[in-house]
Amino acid sequence: MAALKPVRCGGYTLTFDRTLLMGVLNVTPDSFSDGGRFLDFDIAVEHAREMVEDGADILDIGGESTRPGSESVSEAEELGRVLPVIEKLVGEVNVPVSIDTCKPGVADECLKAGAHMLNDITGLTDRRMIEVAAEHGVPAVAMHMKGTPKNMQQNPVYGDVVAEIIEFLGGRVGAARDAGVEDVIVDPGIGFGKTTEHNLQILKRLGEFRSLGCPVLVGPSRKSFIGNVTGLPVDERLEGTLAAVAVAAMNGADIIRVHDVRECRRAAQVADAVRYA
What we know:
The protein contains 9 helices and 10 strands. It has helices spanning 41-53, 75-89, 104-112, 127-136, 161-178, 196-204, 224-230, 238-250, 261-275, and strands spanning 7-9, 12-14, 20-26, 58-62, 97-100, 117-120, 140-143, 184-187, 217-218, 255-258.
């Protein structure tokens, strides 16, 4: 398969000769793993700096929880959480800053403030989100989700989970490119409308997503499937996350979205050494 072309993010360029890490910063009171820890502005900014020091290649800033069962917040509330943090970070850190949102208005304001890419859990299904990405000339992550965060884990059913996700993402990539979005990154959406077995199949067959011709992003960090496999609560899933990171890197992930950047960087380094040996 042909090598992926670099992805430009404003003044930054992402190249894919190793696995990149996207550090998660949830500026929320209720995210499943770290809700409330980084709601304070100063604490959020300091944590972002620490993730960059620990090896994050991208920072992903989100202001609305997408945990199973979560409720949406208003555009104004979401912007109030993320915009000050993004405005601060784009002038201080030396990596691209991504806005994690499904609201085109939030994405637009954050990109105006200097964010370098957008991450949409609803897979660019809102035409306006595609237009925002095209207008700003930024890369966009299209993620697969069955249902909404509120109902996505209510008995999700697939025939062939990987084939169905690839079909969906292929359509979103085509729509985005037709509208002028040059760079699309695809995310199969681990934990978003999937059972434990679905998530395991996605990781096992991750290489199949390379058929889309786009960088593949995956987010296994601390997810419930790790808890279901190990029987451990969310604050004891580091080792399981490291195993998932290594498997993802070996099986074709280009970007892995994680909370524990330092530890995951070390795991990815070893996996990459084997992958590219």
